[in-house]
Design goal:
Length: about 450
């Protein structure tokens, strides 16, 4: 691979508008992503390497292969960006929640050959030469407003609400019988709706911890994640478990009442405390002595439709351990499984009406053994072919009320469904023309896949 080249542009640009401009020009065919985080915003495309594992074939050393891939990315002066699907813990291939397709990769990462990094002052292009990105840098984006006369979306398949209530009742019985101490049960909705990922990303309502727009082959995912699973830099790590939920209020007074109710509710507090204790016990064996601390405990994090109890945990890694060890210790997150994890996952597989695929997994990046950032694949939408999926869950304890847990998932799904309805194709591009359909082609460089 040729040496990369750096070029700085002292301009303030909109990352989504720039992504749309690059996409219209056909430069993002195949594999690309847009990642917004508090640390930085980045667009990546034209991968020089791709790792795709667990697409129907057993791969017991997928962690070792991912670690090797991340080290390779660091040697190239780049990062490995991608996702790990939830079902990697029990399956050898990804199956869509409605079982309409099987054998999709459960671990997929790319090393981008071209990146744009955005700050509040400038844009930096790192690439292999030959592309002048200056003409694609866009200062603002104007998306078409939602069409109020559009036909309401109806799912083509979904978890039945009554079936979910029954599953929660059986989950409560399982917890009461000692099969698990906590469960997280989810339900999905599937739509035969093709969406414009740029319009969908633009329809997302902050706040979010990380926001991802990922186009990997025929998988298009838009995920405004509320929960950081792991960030790591210079052997310092952090995680931010969320557990315990109430809806947002329609007025400031109602919002404050619900927030106070959340902070005082016994079931929600227990759910949060056991999640924090589990994270501490998972990290303790790989962290330096006395470095593991809860720096913030039981704050309330507010999002578009819901609010959660939130804690932040920080630590230093012990000698001999790296960020991938920390990721594997935390994955899958206790906030999307339950505890003990192995027992909870068995009950989840028995009670949920389909596989999770991406839901509850992670998206983010690794660079070598010392740097990473991964957030949970929650509150997002993803499309495989022309079918789009939403999924949401709720934490189940012995004192849970099934109808209340159903209502929690309804709040979460409603925000995603509204965003999907606003972005269903055909839409208009910022310049008034029709958006170019997303290409399913693979760039020449991305064919150099590691098997």
């Amino acid at each position: 691979m040729r040496d990369s080249r750096l070029r700085h542009y002292p301009v303030l640009c909109d990352p989504l508008a720039t992504f749309a401009s690059l996409r219209r020009a056909g430069l993002l065919d195949g594999y690309s992503y847009l990642h917004l985080s508090p640390e930085h915003t980045e667009i990546g495309w034209a991968p020089v390497e791709r790792l795709a594992l667990l697409s129907g074939t057993p791969c017991h050393d997928w962690r070792d292969q991912l670690a090797e891939f991340a080290l390779h990315a660091e040697l190239l002066g780049r990062k490995a960006f991608g996702y790990i699907g939830f079902d990697v813990v029990t399956k050898d291939g990804g199956t869509l929640p409605d079982r309409s397709e099987t054998d999709r990769p459960l671990v997929e990462f790319v090393i981008p050959g071209e990146t744009l990094t955005f700050t509040s002052r400038d844009v930096t292009h790192r690439g292999l030469g030959g592309i002048d990105v200056s003409r694609f840098l866009a200062p603002t984006i104007k998306l078409a407003p939602p069409n109020p006369s559009a036909t309401p979306l109806d799912p083509v398949s979904a978890s039945c609400e009554q079936a979910y209530i029954d599953a929660v009742r059986r989950g409560i019985s399982a917890v009461s019988a000692g099969e698990a101490k906590k469960l997280v049960l989810s339900r999905y909705q599937a739509y035969d709706a093709d969406f414009d990922p740029v319009a969908l990303f633009g329809a997302l309502q902050p706040p979010f911890v990380d926001a991802f727009l990922v186009c990997f082959g025929d998988l298009v995912a838009v995920v405004p994640s509320p929960e950081l699973l792991l960030s790591g830099s210079n052997r310092q790590i952090a995680t931010n478990p969320l557990a315990g939920t109430r809806p947002r209020g329609g007025t400031p007074a109602e919002d404050a009442r619900l927030r106070a109710e959340l902070a005082e509710n016994h079931k929600e507090i227990v759910e949060h405390v056991v999640s924090v204790n589990t994270v501490l016990s998972e990290l303790e064996p790989i962290c330096a002595r006395d470095s593991l601390v809860v720096s913030r405990f039981m704050d309330v994090a507010q999002f578009q439709r819901v609010q959660h109890l939130s804690s932040t945990i920080r630590a230093s890694l012990a000698a001999g351990y790296n960020v991938l060890d920390a990721l594997c210790a935390l994955f899958p997150a206790v906030t999307v499984t339950g505890l003990p994890k192995s027992d909870a996952i068995k009950v989840i597989e028995r009670l949920e009406d389909g596989p999770r695929y991406l839901y509850g997994g992670v998206m983010g990046w690794l660079r070598g053994a010392g740097n990473c950032r991964f957030s949970l694949a929650l509150r997002g939408l993803y499309r495989c072919g022309s079918r789009s999926f939403l999924q949401a869950g709720a934490g189940i304890l012995a004192e849970s009320v099934p109808e209340a847990e159903l209502l929690e998932t309804t709040y979460k799904l409603s925000a995603m469904k509204d965003a999907l309805a606003s972005a269903v194709l055909p839409t208009r591009t910022p310049d008034g023309g029709n958006m170019k359909p997303y290409s399913l082609g693979i760039t020449k460089s991305s064919k150099r896949a590691i098997k």
